[in-house]
Amino acid sequence: MTRIRCYWGWVAAAIAFRILLICFPKNLNLGSRPEVATPLTSLRRLAEGYWLKQASMSPYAGSMYHGSPLLLSILGPFTITRSEGQPAYFYCSLMFVIVDFVTAMLIRATGQKLMLKCHQSLQFLNLSKLVEASGNVEAGNFASLVFLWNPLTIVTCVGSTTAPIDNLMAVLAIYGACSCLAPLAAFGWVIATHLSLYPAILIVPLILLLGHGPDAPPLKLFQQKNNSASGSSPSSHSHTKSTQTGIQIDYFSWRPVLHFLLWASIWSCYVLVLSSISLKGLGGLLEMFKKTHGFILTVVDLSPNIGVLWYFFAEVFDFFRNFFLIVFNMNILFMLLPLAIRLKHRPCFLAFVYLAISSMLKSYPSVGDSALYLGLLGLFANELAGMQFSFFLFCGYIGVSLLSPVMHNLWIWRGTGNANFYFATGIAYACLQTVLIVESVSTMLKYDRMLRKHITT
Amino acid sequence: MALEEEQKPKGGVARSRLIVRLGAFLVSHNVFVSVVCCIAGIIALLLLPVLAKNTYISENALMPGSANPAFSAQDVMEANRFVKDLIDRRTIEGTGIEIPRLIGQHMAGVGAEVYYHKFWPHKNQFHPLHFFSCAPNTVTMQSNSSCASVGVNSIGIIRAPRGDGKEAIVLVTPYNPWKIELSEALSLGLAFSIFSLLGQVSWLAKDIVWLAADSQFGEYTSVSAWLKDYHSPVFFSESGKMNVDMCYEYNSHQDWDRITVNWANANAFKRAGTMAAALVLKVLEKKERQERDSLTIYAEASNGQMPNLDLINIVHYLAVHRQGLRVKIATIGSLLNSVWLRSIGEIVQRLCRFAKSLDPRWKYDITSADYVEGSATLASSMYYQAIGVPTGSHGAFRDYQVDAVTLELSPWFSLKNENSQSAFLLRGGRLIEGVIRSVNNLLEKFHQSFFLYFLTAPNKFVSVGVYMIAFALLIAPLPIVAVAPFSGKNKIRLSTDKGNQRPGNTCTDEIEITIGSWKWLHAAKVVFMIHLWAVIVLLLPYFISQIPYISPTTSMLVWVAVAISALLIVYLILGSPYSSDCEWALLKSIMIAAAFIGLGLMSIINFSTAQIGALIVVPMCLMVRPLKRHKEVALCTRVMLMACNLVLAVMGSPPAALLILKGLSEGFGRVGIGDFWVWAEFLWIWNSATYLYLFLVHLPCWALYVHILLHP
């Protein structure tokens, strides 16, 4: 097993690098980049909303702020505290650095859980030689370092957006489900949904995680194994129970799932109560839903971003608008079920695929979403080692992330380009994400097939 | 794509996707494809003058020449009187104040609003993060600048009787108030006569701003300072502005009083809406005799940006068809007489005739002389765009998305002859009036015609759709060669190489593949470190230029020394640069991928730089091979490859290339090491993206090239 040398040194360096960068916000001016800050996550809008709220107005007045009222209460005070010689939003940025660190640690813990489960199941299947031969990496450490050193994560963290908090909540939900902590998972899921709506689809992988436990080879393999070697090996699974006859079947345990659902309803009530207290006399919950989740679903803001919806809805005729809104929003939901059926034995990977799909199809995407799913991608480094087009994807991500600011400059500042220039990079980015999803899923399926081949031969 | 083929038996190949199979086919013939593409790219580049189309005015609202010019002999007389006034003041002491005052008086005399704009010469500094920000830095005033160096622009604004004050047309005449020359006085006189005419006309729908720019610190400086203040209001609470005023009063208190008494508010900055277009007027006396008055158009702004082609079109149309001027644009003179270009011209002419005999509808009719002239113009157009430095004060306007050109009028006789001077002024005045009248008709910003083009003659252009083909053909081999090591046959060769090195390796096929598909990460690390080094080299001049009293040669030596030591440190961090897990083929493919991304990006930022850079970088990328690996091929090929590689290695390094080019053009005696420093300084002072390209794309590519050449 290849170990990562001086892991903590790298983590410390990543944090130091972020702190160094947040001292120069004026020079970088990342907060004004459309790729980094969306109308939902921009901290400048949050400051505006906080100011409105302090002036006893609804924070949603004037279509500036579209985030949660809870964030307003937590982050708002930091946006105005400013001491001498420090850049604006210094405290917020420091907080985001901490949030990034916590996210990385949660990814690491999740990775360790996944590794443990993977080793157990491979040992159970007598395939441990495979583990040693393939130059295994510690998935947790690797993924957390990928997350911390990903330029997109750094840009999101430094660019004064609230996206790191959204990411933390999504990771928290996955971690909670992986370690079978139903309240924690429910908390992460509820808050993530409350903040950015799209993580709501994570409920499928979360339930699978709580029911089945973390990723494992397909169930059929265990059955085959048991049939051939009638249960001689000792079982060490956390959630599977070996019965007296030695036939091992992965039961779907409903208890943690019910726990999760119960807790989720408790947390959502709690969040709603807190929000209504926070917005008391300033508009109320209905306006909040209209201005946050409604804003996300109806794609009101057509300012350019790296997604593809803004261009489409700027072009579409008004009377088709509702129809296409339904089509685009259903688009994400259509993919949930088939993927869930095919990948039900690997719920964590399923969560990664869901996040990648939603970041491709969501209405206001930013690089923060890519930061999240690319970080999670590191968790499956061992399984995806044989991925095709890795070099192409790597170059593509670099190319698109450099091309996007240049095209934006050409369009907005120089005036020699036009909206199509910038939209072209958006399409290229969407294509890259599609290739990434297709390749990673097919590689994962190929890996499962390889396991079966090893067992049968 | 190769993995799939490898995993399946031969029958399974047919099952892979069509696009993957097509890609694999191209990759398997990569040598042939790259040779064909490169040659096609160079031929397409040489054919650009043939493919140039005639310009046409695409904005209908412009309607050039639809009205008869009102500029008459009376206006010419007025201009002459003004010129005489200016020339008379030349002998008086303190013209630096006197002439702006005189201009201001005349402006006010025709009923314009007048004010003076005082500025300090903008101190150019190296700032690596400001290459693409067009919003200028507001804090440019250096508090320690000396008070003596203040320039004064005089500005007059005519409010349009039919306008709403939201749009304006700008007329710029640069002159040096301390040493005014006859040609400058003439350009001021011309501008004044047009200005006074426009003060009377009733058709004006856009305000006219006449900026008499003080060019004692350079033409560009004064205009850009004025534009900056025009677009970013400075409030009086800000210290910098106050400083100028105080400083000026301190310096020449009495002179200044005389102006401010005449017009109250003469120092308040006035504005006139967004600028539709700007014309920079210059009169230049040419040494050589010519049969007609001529007009030279300069259009290149910073980083290869061009004004909308329509602006050049109306100027050209009015100048040629109404005023009978001879319109020229800059050419590279040495190319006009070059033998090889003429012989290419002959071939092209014959080919065109042949093509026409095949199908008379193909209108590629070009004579050899036309081809040579077109190429020389295209080359100069490309050269100025590639350097990324504006060719005149019109460049300052482009930073604010205002289309602007410099019109340089030159008479065919001596300027001192008064009779023909009047005729010259009449022609010039009618031309400018016509252009202003056309622009005045505009309903929207210039947007109909091209922004991305090259001129091969004043009335011929090559649009982006055509010249991109040449570039795309040239860089098309890069991605194909980059993925070659990952494809079928080469893949097997790679793994057998590895097997030879470590015979005890008994992994299964699949595990071999799983490692193999990520093996490029090691090479990527090397490439990343080299790019990091390039960033350090890029930023070094900032620190070196802080050292006071240092000559260019010393700066250059320090720069090179620090760069090389930084490279050594990078190698120390990397461990052995040629460790066994970093194969040269993979390194080459990553280097090519990086160069491809860099060239692609640069082609969007500044096409000319990318095109010229690609001519060097693409052969470098395609030819590179460790010198010790040449033993496999035949002797003569080996010698040829070696020679090519060595030539490329020398010519590819930026300083050597510059010094050799300079030596060839000016003689080697005058070339020093410091020249490169001077040149680099010139580039970063003008915020040229070429500087970035040179150090972020070209330099790492060259360093990796040498690295691979020396690979054991």
From TrEMBL, chain A:
It is found in: Endoplasmic reticulum membrane. GO terms for cellular component: GPI-anchor transamidase complex. Keywords: Endoplasmic reticulum, GPI-anchor biosynthesis, Membrane, Transmembrane, Transmembrane helix. Pathway: Glycolipid biosynthesis; glycosylphosphatidylinositol-anchor biosynthesis. GO terms for biological process: attachment of GPI anchor to protein; GPI anchor biosynthetic process. InterPro entries: PIG-U. It is a multi-pass membrane protein. Its main location: endoplasmic reticulum. The chain crosses the membrane at residues 7-28, 88-107, 168-190, 197-214, 260-282, 294-313, 319-341, 348-365, 385-407, 419-438. Pfam families: PIG-U. Signal peptide: none annotated. Belongs to the PIGU family. This is Phosphatidylinositol glycan anchor biosynthesis class U protein isoform X1. It comes from Phoenix dactylifera.
TrEMBL record, chain B:
The keyword Magnesium does not apply. It holds the Pfam family Gaa1. The keyword Transit peptide does not apply. GO terms for biological process: attachment of GPI anchor to protein. It comes from the Eukaryota. One of its GO terms (cellular component) is GPI-anchor transamidase complex. Keywords: Membrane, Transmembrane, Transmembrane helix. The chain crosses the membrane at residues 31-52, 464-486, 526-544, 556-574, 586-605, 611-627, 639-661, 691-710. This is Glycosylphosphatidylinositol anchor attachment 1 protein isoform X1. It comes from Phoenix dactylifera (Date palm).
